[in-house]
Automatic annotation (TrEMBL):
Its main location: membrane. GO terms for molecular function: ABC-type transporter activity. GO terms for cellular component: plasma membrane. This is ABC transporter permease. It is found in: Cell membrane. It is a multi-pass membrane protein.
Length: 415
């Protein structure tokens, strides 16, 4: 009987919230925002009227020849004999910039026309530096092989070796995991804020309209308590799956897009163990917040008290989010290290610490075990608090009533 009623309540809660505009507004808003940003970027690219810069080199044929051969400077290179000829070309609109070479001091002066297409100064500087090196090499009678050996840079490749002996590109893995951790920190906070408000409104709605008495006459408090949590949790999972499907579809439809390639390259460096542990930590963390919110929401008398009741829960979620941003700065901070194992904040802190290699997957599994233990505890013992308050209408200070009721999570009834 319990099982049948449980699925009935869960399904009804899911269907009711699934049809609301608020749910689809939250789901589609980020997707629409990304689509608008992508559309604007595409439109700016298509309507870009920037012309290739035109650069004239004054009386330096060797420099002109080198710049034309190297093709590193994105400009149409030409040569003029004198500065006066360059100025005449400017007046006629034939060039945008001209380069004056002082052969005695080997200094260069770039003159750019106001309103013309400028030359990338850094690229031009690098090309001229390379030309100066080649010129000095010829004066010293160095061969191409000797010059290449002299200028050859040293390389340092970082590799990360897992406990299983698997070696991966360290920089790519760390970059990918950090990006994933930051995205998760923001995403988790948004999810928690939205679904905490949803489940609190669900319970407060029924309590303020006195429907709860009718529902509990037909079912048990446990059915209502766990059924509503399951229904909202299924909605959150669907929300996440929509984003996964949408992201996969964009990657398949636009594989050559620069932004899509950048995101897929980052995600390709994320190791599977990090994704699994992080996914489970996030899922259990969301369930923890839902259970706690359901307990608190049972204490409100009407909708006007919902914001007051769930505000501390939102602040608690914000603590984990803010601290996760500090992990990259102080990853081995003792407070952050301890809190990364504490339920209600571990779902954001532990993935962040794993991503910067200051915590292991084993640490993540320990944090996950603690989350599950706390979830089981507050679910079954919190049910007693829910039963006590769901049909009770408190007068006076709501915070005081909440504290007195939550004592039941830690102090057993001896009667």
């Amino acid at each position: 009987m319990f099982k049948q009623q449980f699925w009935l309540v869960a399904r009804q809660t899911f269907k009711t919230r699934f049809r609301t505009r608020a749910f689809w507004l939250v789901v589609l808003s980020p997707l629409l925002m990304l689509a608008v940003v992508g559309g604007i970027a595409w439109l700016m690219t298509v309507t870009n009227n920037d012309k290739t810069s035109r650069l004239a080199v004054v009386d330096a044929p060797q420099v002109t020849t080198y710049l034309k051969q190297e093709k590193t400077v994105n400009a149409k290179i030409s040569e003029v004999s004198t500065v006066s000829e360059a100025k005449q070309a400017v007046d006629k609109g034939k060039i945008d910039n001209y380069l004056i070479v002082d052969p005695t001091t080997n200094k260069y002066t770039l003159k750019s026309v106001n309103g013309g297409t400028p030359v990338d100064e850094q690229t031009l500087q690098a090309a001229l530096n390379q030309y100066a090196v080649l010129t000095r090499a010829k004066e010293l009678h160095l061969s191409q092989a000797e010059l290449a050996a002299l200028l050859a840079p040293t390389t340092l490749k970082t590799e990360v070796v897992s406990s299983k002996g698997k070696t991966t590109d360290g920089d790519a893995t760390r970059t990918a995991n950090r990006a994933m951790s930051t995205a998760l920190g923001i995403g988790i906070f948004v999810f928690l804020t939205f679904y905490v408000g949803m489940i609190s409104n669900e319970i407060a709605n029924e309590k303020s309209s006195r429907i709860m008495e009718i529902l509990l006459a037909a079912t048990s408090p446990a059915v209502q308590f766990f059924g509503k949590i399951a229904g909202i949790a299924a909605l959150a999972i669907l929300h996440l799956l929509i984003y996964v499907v949408a992201g996969t579809a964009v990657a398949l439809v636009l594989p050559d897009n620069d932004q899509v390639r950048q995101v897929t390259s980052v995600l390709s460096g994320v190791d599977s163990s990090f994704m699994i542990v992080t996914g489970l930590l996030v899922l259990i963390g969301i369930l923890l917040y839902m259970v706690l919110t359901a307990i608190i929401a049972a204490m409100v008398n009407d909708q006007s008290q919902v914001q007051q009741a769930v505000a501390p829960i939102s602040y608690l979620a914000m603590v984990g989010y803010i601290l996760s941003l500090l992990v990259a700065v102080q990853p081995n901070n003792l407070l952050i290290k301890i809190l990364s194992f504490v339920p209600f904040v571990s779902q954001t802190l532990m993935p962040a610490r794993i991503s910067v290699q200051y915590a292991s997957v084993t640490d993540g599994v320990i944090a996950l075990g603690l989350e599950i233990a706390v979830l089981i505890y507050i679910s079954w013992f919190g049910l007693n608090v829910y039963k006590k308050n769901v049909l009770q209408y408190n007068d006076g200070n709501l915070t005081k009533a909440a504290i007195l009721s939550l004592r039941g999570l830690f102090i057993r009834n001896r009667n």
